Known about the structure:
Blueprint: H1 3-20, H2 40-52, E1 55-56, E2 64-66, E3 69-70, E4 72-74, E5 79-83, E6 96-98, E7 104-107, H3 116-121, E8 125-132, E9 135-144, E10 148-153, E11 163-170, E12 179-189, E13 200-208, E14 214-216, E15 219-220, E16 226-227, E17 229-233, H4 243-254, E18 269-276, E19 279-287, E20 302-306, H5 314-319, E21 327-328, E22 331-333, H6 346-356, H7 359-369, H8 372-385, E23 395-402, E24 405-412, E25 421-423, E26 432-434, H9 446-453, H10 459-471, H11 477-492, H12 496-503, H13 513-532, H14 534-537
Parallel strand pairs: 1-9, 5-9, 10-18
Antiparallel strand pairs: 2-3, 2-6, 4-5, 7-8, 8-9, 10-11, 11-12, 12-13, 13-14, 13-17, 15-16, 17-19, 18-19, 20-22, 20-23, 21-22, 23-24, 25-26
Amino acid sequence: MGKRTVLWSSLLLLAAFFLFVPDAVRREAEPGFLEPGSLLEETEQAIRLRERLTETLDTGEVRLCFRGEELACDRDTGVWYLPVDMEEPRWEEGNFTAFGDEIRILPLADYTTLDKQSVVAEGEKVPFLAWKGEACAPVHVIFTGLPVVRMETGADLDVDTVFAGSVVFYEACGRQDWTMTSGFEAHERGQTTRAFPKRGYRVNLISVTGTGAARKNPQQVLGMRDSDSWIFYAIYSDGTKVRDRFSIGLWNAFGASGTPYDAHYGTHMEYAELVVNGEYRGLYGILEPIDCRQLAVSDQEYLYKRTMGRILSTEQMDLNMPEDYLTVLGMEIKGKEGQGTRRDWQSFRRFVAMEEAGDAAFAEEAEKLLAIENAADIWLYLQMLYGEDNIYKNMFFAFKKEADGERMYLIPWDVDLSWGNVYTDQAEELYAVHMPEAAEKYLHWPFMDRVIRLDVGRIRSVIEERYKTLRDGPLSPEEMEALLEECIHQVQDSGAFQRDAARWPDSHHDGDYDGMRDFVERRMKFLEKIIKNMDEWIQD
Length: 540
């Protein structure tokens, strides 16, 4: 079956989902909280029923709901997932029910008497009784501290194809509007990560008309900005599961807002647990896309993404322009939707030509083209992370038209290889190994090394002052530790880390947070040494 056939089959399934799934359970108002012991009577009733009923209910019939919303279920284990506020010690009020009038749900344990935060962190399976007529069976609920995403599709997700279906985002169930449902169209994403059994996806939200036609459906997802396109990042090779979110949080604290535009020059990431077609898929990072809208790049401006690590030349670019002009030598142009031309690559070609020029011409052109504050921030950021995977790839280049000419801004992307994790081509190491000695290694970035060596736009003093200011603010030991602790709290105290490890035992799950803390501390001390004596490290 071809990709297009699979896609249209999935779209028809999606249309049927929206047209024919009944709203079988009354939606309740915003809940309060349960008093301890408030489910004792229902629990005793459930125990009596279990002792009396002699037939076994097929749990495949059960579609468990909370507050009128059907929950995500891992059918192999018969476990449903309900996100709760893990910062709130009280249990959220609401009824567990099932679709239809025949199946009833009662708790087999009064979980309101249990310590909520321990139940969540330990991933305890709380039992309920599903019963119909003379038949019953236990079902189980995991209360997770993270959002849950449920996807339904008629396609095989382990096949590289475009597929479509329905998606539900569940946030903490104490919220009034705690779910969002949409259609979607998706495909696998990533380069080396496509070899991993746990796949990442780009998910485009769509709505389906009565005739089956699909159109974009931008929505706010998990508290992030509204968009129709989202990245589902699998977080497979990082044993801590926090490097990306920690690094993104640091950039957002100082680099993403350092532009003259009312725009966020970065991304956001929120954790979630994914269930697809009744199969638990583990811990994911849901990321905002970096696109023209995010960066306020107009139709007359340009945004490029560097996806492959190679040194470029103007000669290579001139010889390798394809007919569609959307990809050139590991570079992608964004926002042109099939309308790119050779002219659309001239801004990036200007950057490449500048790199080829002699020192005098390079310095003159760099001072015109670079946003010096942004250049200082991105250099500090990648040195801090030891982000060697980002100097020739995993970077966005935004070319903005300003009063004194065109200006280039750099935006980092995909920062999992950071804080001592470095690339290896050995598959058994999941393309990442930890190298503690990198904490005291200078990250050679030929382009920025040259900018600093020639002191373009007095960037040395900009870096020195910027670092001094940041070290008393978002890059202080206290604030960096607080951010790291929050990331660890999200993956560990939610119970998601342990569930992901059980689902993907071949993935990295070392949880070496002390090792990461040690690397951060040593790296920041080493960075200070670099800044105090740049000539020792910046070489021609």
